Prior knowledge:
- By secondary structure, the chain is α+β, with helices and mostly antiparallel strands.
- The chain has helices at 47-64, 101-105, 135-140, 146-169, 218-221, 227-241; strands at residues 7-10, 14-18, 24-29, 32-35, 40-43, 71-76, 79-83, 86-87, 90-97, 113-123, 172-179, 181-183, 189-191, 200-204.
- Helix 1 runs parallel beside helix 6.
- The protein binds uridine-5'-diphosphate.
- The site of uridine-5'-diphosphate has 13 residues, from strand 9, helix 2, strand 11 and strand 14.
Amino acid sequence: MNNKCDLIYEGKAKKIFSHDDEDKVIIEFKDDATAFNALKKAKFEGKGRLNCLISTRIFELLMKNNIPNHFIRLKNENTIIAKKIKVIPLEIVLRNTAYGSLCKQTTIKPGTLLAKPLIDIYLKNDELNDPLITRDRIELMNILESRDLDFIIDLTLKINIILKKFFKNIQLQLVDFKLEFGYDLNSKILLGDEISPDNCRLWDLNQKDDIIVSLDKDRFRNDLGGLIEAYSEINRRINDFI
Length: 242
Ligand code: UDP
């Protein structure tokens, strides 16, 4: 029962296995890290476990707040059981503070607090380098119906309110994050993927000066070192708080 079955898909940071139940999958978090569309690669021992544990706590929080999502339960420290979904090929990024690609593509200065959350949508396509996409292009490509896109955007804004408050409680500034959604077997939209320092920017608020201390994948992207220490610190703060 519930033995690891066939490998259905292997992504950059996770492996997806089939489950005995048709409507479920087993997701294993890997230690691999990639950045800049996998041009930069490395392995960090223990990253998979930390992301799995952090993501589990966050999905449990979202569950309590009635956000429809794929998470079912933790199987072991780097594996979860989730509902099977057909992933919508869009990456929904919400930004509270300007950083990363927003500052490379506009004249907005890094660290600027945004007056309201900004939602940037990217097409999930490695060959095209995940381009920024417009609502009209999404419609043109028949990726999803307009009302489903509205639903996803609305859900992302709700998730932001929950996460911002949660992270502030543990002295972290939620700069931005990326979400993915999918359809379950009943065509219901669910939040999928993971929520971890791999796809959120989290800055330490326990700093005397205004210096930015990233406790997220920017430690790898920008060669800052101490990635496992940063992820462990987030995991520790979450567990001390809950
Ligand atoms: N992000 C992600 N996967 C991607 C691109 C971005 O999880 O393929 C996350 C990233 O960790 C950050 C947010 O989305 O929390 C915004 O990233 P940005 O567009 O600034 O891109 P980057 O600077 O990472 O190239």
